[in-house]
Amino acid sequence: MRVTILAHEQFPDRAKTAQGILRYADYDVVAVLDRDRAGERVADHVPDAQDAPIVTGMDDVDEPVDALIVGIAPIGGGFDESWRPDVRTALERGCDVVSGLHYFLTEDEEFAALAAAHDAELWDVREPPEDLSVSEGVAADIDAEIVCTVGTDCSVGKMTATMELVDAAREAGHDAAVIPTGQTGIMVEGWGNPIDRVISDFTAGAVEEMILEKGDEHDLLVVEGQGSIVHPAYSAVTCGILHGAMADRLVMCHDATRESIHGYESFDLPPIETYVSLYESLAAPVRESEVVAGMLDTHHLEGDDAARAALSDFEDAVGAPATDPIRYDAAEVLEAIV
After folding, report:
1. For residue 77, is pLDDT > 90?
2. Contact 176, 219 (CB under 8 A)
3. pTM, whole model, 2 decimals?
4. Do 112 and 182 meet the contact criterion of CB atoms below 8 Å apart?
5. Is the domain 2-124 a CATH 3.20.20.70 member?
6. What is the band of 131 on the pLDDT scale with cuts at 50, 70, 90?
7. Do 212 and 177 meet the contact criterion of CB atoms below 8 Å apart?
8. Residues of the chain with CATH 3.40.50.720
9. Measured between alpha carbons, how far is 320 from 94 in angstroms, rounded to an integer?
10. What is the mean pLDDT of the chain?
């Protein structure tokens, strides 16, 4: 499928969905839309992903396109009205539009009418299925090993760690699969439950349902974590995933330059050791689980020496081996995880 990705004024650092699509999705990316970086290329900023030109908007895309993907997810998941012309143009050209926002495009009268008139589809990735229920506490009964990525904050690499870990496990001969819990993972994998949109009582059940669905098909399941257990807004989602997954092992994810909670900068991040204790103790009443590895985002650090020093400090704090799965390789810690 040929797609364009909307990432206005956010590419690359605040467009994690766009980066996830460029790295992991089986799509042919025709262009990235970003008014601030028009005329540049993806490879100028993200050299380890699929390359594509960056243009001002859909009007600058002359090639055939099957879908426009909203590649940014602002706090609160709202729709920025400055994006409307690009979505409108895409629909008028008969392109499907894929969105991971909390603002559902199917409920927008203009977009719904345009989609119907031009035989296009609107896919609101964050719309959960209607048949979810509470957890039965049985995820641990499956034969597959369950690993869950957890983090110190939002946007610290949990989705990336999940994808890279599954790729590394498959290359090593393990039958591994992703359990997608967020909009980017769902877009990449083509299925999943958007946990941050699920009724609170059903959060753990929505994770459990996916694990039960895949548990007999694979030897290793890696659950995509969300948020952080100390996040003032999203901790409930994190806890629901942790308890629903009933993971055998946890992988701690962190941004080497992050000192405060993104979007809530008055809240400093606790020490890494505090996170390890919190996650393990919170998981324990439901399922004894241990942080066995770390994944550190070092892309803001200049040079290998700085990255290696940060990894060494992170390993000491986590008490387990760690790597940067993009700068280096997830296989470096695979043995500790599987």
Report:
1. no
2. yes
3. 0.94
4. no
5. no
6. very high
7. no
8. 2-124
9. 50
10. 96
Contact between residue 198 and residue 128 where contact means Cβ atoms under 8 Å apart: yes
Q: What CATH architecture is 139-337?
A: 3-Layer(aba) Sandwich (3.40)
Show the tokens assigned to 28. 């042919």
Q: Which residue has the tokens 């997608």?
A: 180
The average pLDDT across 245-249 equals 98
240-246-248-250 Cα dihedral, nearest 10 degrees: 0
Tokens 């200049």 correspond to 302
Give the pair of three-digit tokens for residue 172: 């090593």
